[in-house]
Amino acid sequence: MASHKHLESLIELLSEHRSACRLPGAVKLFVIGLSVLQLFCSFIPSSFAGDILAETAPANAIDVLKFKSAPMVAAPKIGLALGGGGTRGAAHVGVLEVLEKEGIKVDYIAGTSIGSIIGGLYAAGVPLETIRKGVVSGQLMHHFMTVSLPVRVLLAPVLYVPRLLGSRAYDGLYKGNKFRKYLEKTLHSSDKRIENLKVPFAAVSLNLLDGKPYMIRSGDLCYAMQASSAVPSLRKPVEMGDKLFVDGGVSCNLPVKQCRQMGADFVIAVNVDEPFRLATTDTFRKPGSVARRMIKWDLYTIDKTQEELADVVIHPDTEGIILVSTSKKAAMRALSAGEQAARDALPAIKEKLQGRNILQAEK
Question: What is the pLDDT of residues 17-30, one digit of tens each?
Answer without folding.
Answer: 433 333 333 333 33
